[in-house]
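Ticket #4471: structure output looks truncated?

Reporter: J.K.
Steps to reproduce: submitted the chain below (98 residues) through the standard prediction queue, then opened the result file.
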Amino acid sequence: MSPDGPFDFTLYLATPKTHDVLCGRPDGYTSCRNGNSVVLRLGRGQETCPVPGALAPVMRQQTLGLHGCEPNPWPYPDGTQYSGPSGEYDDPIPRGDS
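Returned output as attached by the reporter:
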């Protein structure tokens, strides 16, 4: 498959709580495939935006809000580990299409 071709799945790096929602089962531990969603856990906690305008840490739950950060899918964007302060925001988890 080429990079410009169709995709078969979307990969999510998720916290245990988000994993439960995406996988549809409350074990918060194992990885899963649910339809076209593949959900992985890295064992790291969530991180917050270090400063407005900075790249978002990869462990910032970017799908729920950036809180002033810029989107970023890479844990090592400049060759060194990039992270933000430990913590999480009280963003609501989407309920999906109704």
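Triage note (M.O.): checked the attachment and the full token line is present. Strands lie at 10-13, 32-34, 37-40.
Status: closed, working as intended.
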